[in-house]
Amino acid sequence: MVHGARMARVQEMTEAGIDAVSAIRVRGRQTAYTGYTTDGAIQSDTYGGTPLPETRYRRTLP
Q1: Cα separation of 21 and 43, whole Å?
Q2: N or C: fewer beta carbons within 10 Å in the chain?
Q3: How far apart are CA 57 and CA 1, in angstroms?
Q4: Do 44 and 50 touch, CB atoms closer than 8 A?
Q5: Residues 6 or more apart from 32 whose CB is under 8 A from it?
Q6: Are 43 and 54 in contact (CB under 8 A)?
Q7: In this predicted model, what pLDDT tens digit does every residue of 10-21 receive, in sequence order?
């Protein structure tokens, strides 16, 4: 349940625009296991940025 709530919260932040990406970048380590850093990488691609280093590293994990 907690994971779902956090993912929903990220989507709300995404409506704020680039702020969502910076927030995810700052909190990348804490969120690495909640699954929404991957959403952050997708959003950064949407904004024309490169995937965050933390997310690129997490993506390679099983």
Answers
A1: 7
A2: C
A3: 25
A4: yes
A5: 54, 58
A6: no
A7: 555 555 555 555
